[in-house]
Amino acid sequence: MGLAVSDTGNFEFTERTTMRRQANRAVFDHATAYAILDEGLICHLGFAVDGRPFVVPTMHWRDGDRLYVHGSSASRTLRALEGGSAEACVTVTLLDGLVLARSAYHHSLNFRSVMVFGRAALVEGPEKLHALARLVEHVAPGRWDEVRHPSELELKATSVLALPLDEVSIKVSPGDPVDDEDDYDLPVWAGVVPLALRAGAPDVDPLMRLDIATPSYLEHYTRLPER
Description:
The protein has 5 helices and 10 strands, in the order E-H-E-E-E-H-E-E-E-H-H-E-E-E-H. The protein starts with 25 loop residues before the first strand and ends in an 8-residue tail after the last helix. Helices cover 17% and strands 33% of the residues. A hairpin with a 2-residue loop joins strand 2 (42-49) and strand 3 (52-63). The chain has helices at residues 30-39, 76-81, 126-139, 152-156, 216-219; strands at residues 26-27, 42-49, 52-63, 66-72, 87-100, 108-119, 121-122, 158-164, 167-173, 191-194.
């Protein structure tokens, strides 16, 4: 059963998305999953070929209730998945902080993660160009209208795969360290070191024409969600 594009509602439980350990960190709503996928820039795509496991880092983006990945048409990864015969697992993780406890055992990380299970479908025709436009906009909103669009040769050299956001597992781990009761009086600093992906000042390509100004969407670029 497909999901509506709306951010409202929850994902249905499946055998693979039911969290058995630390179930209190499980989240099930569309809005949380979509926000994590939209903030992230890189995913890890897992699959098996001839019984051998592979996990490949690649770019991802979301459009409605579908998750997209892309790569070279000659890629073993995409050729293994594009027919829909192989199961895929896509994971996106955002690291939010170092959790430093009083004991070594309770050290941890604050993070948000989404795991998507499913079979990928090859995207062709007008949807393919639309999907690639969404990729560029995912990286830098406003960029697609400025750049040269892909040529027919470039489109043939690129494969785009889509996975439905039907079977989704979400895990969110926030908060302060939780120590054993006997450890709270230890003379050890405890707390959280916040972490975030932040952009620096844009570095100009030395081959760029001197009369081209830095776009406004790069002057204040951020991957952080609006608060």
